[in-house]
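Incident log, support desk, overnight shift.

02:14 A customer reports that sequence design results differ from what the structure should imply. Their input is reproduced verbatim below. On-call engineer (initials T.W.) acknowledged and began investigating.
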């Protein structure tokens, strides 16, 4: 396993700079990835992507499966890997950044996972100190130290992380269901008590 600066294991590009308002495309157009499309937890909300009218979109700003997009602005500076749910190249718009991993060293999924973990988030916290609007510069992102294990270890890390997230989601669902059940039982008992008390007051 090696630990190195991010700029040594992937290309870092700023997103497309729009000179004016991005107009929705009436016909055709290009799929656009904007800051609002990336949830703070690093999930791409692909179902809500819009098409914009833009002729000859530069290829350098188009992302495909395996590329990573980074939220350089906002309370959480997280990353998301572009998955197969986005079936065509999509234009990345600032303040999102584009990360293209060296596929000989790491996968896009592992890169996004590593950026979303606590060590990287602490790096961004320090980089953003003293600024009124939290924003991570390209230089600060390039200096991020990242650990790069072999591909088999990367795969196992992602599998265990996914299982842990699934376990947490199921535990939250179980807690909610238990909470609902307890309150339903309490309501039923309260109603039963009222019914019994009412019957006791009825004239004989």
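02:41 Re-run completed on a clean worker. Output:
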């Amino acid at each position: 396993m090696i630990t190195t600066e991010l700029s040594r294991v992937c290309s870092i590009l700023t997103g497309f700079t729009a000179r004016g308002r991005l107009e929705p495309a009436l016909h055709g157009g290009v799929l656009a990835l904007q800051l609002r499309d990336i949830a703070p937890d690093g999930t791409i909300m692909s179902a809500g992507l819009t098409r914009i009218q833009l002729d000859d979109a530069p290829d350098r700003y188009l992302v495909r499966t395996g590329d990573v997009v980074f939220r350089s602005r906002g309370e959480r500076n997280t990353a998301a890997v572009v998955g197969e749910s986005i079936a065509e190249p999509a234009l990345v718009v600032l303040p999102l950044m584009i990360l293209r991993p060296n596929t000989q060293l790491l996968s896009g999924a592992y890169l996004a996972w590593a950026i979303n973990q606590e060590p990287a988030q602490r790096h961004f916290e320090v980089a953003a100190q003293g600024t009124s609007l939290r924003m991570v510069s390209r230089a600060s992102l390039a200096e991020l130290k990242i650990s790069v294990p072999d591909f088999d270890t990367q795969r196992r890390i992602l599998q265990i992380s996914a299982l842990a997230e699934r376990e947490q989601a199921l535990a939250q669902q179980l807690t909610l269901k238990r909470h609902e059940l307890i309150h339903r039982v309490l309501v039923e008992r309260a109603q039963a008590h009222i019914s019994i008390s009412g019957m006791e007051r009825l004239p004989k």
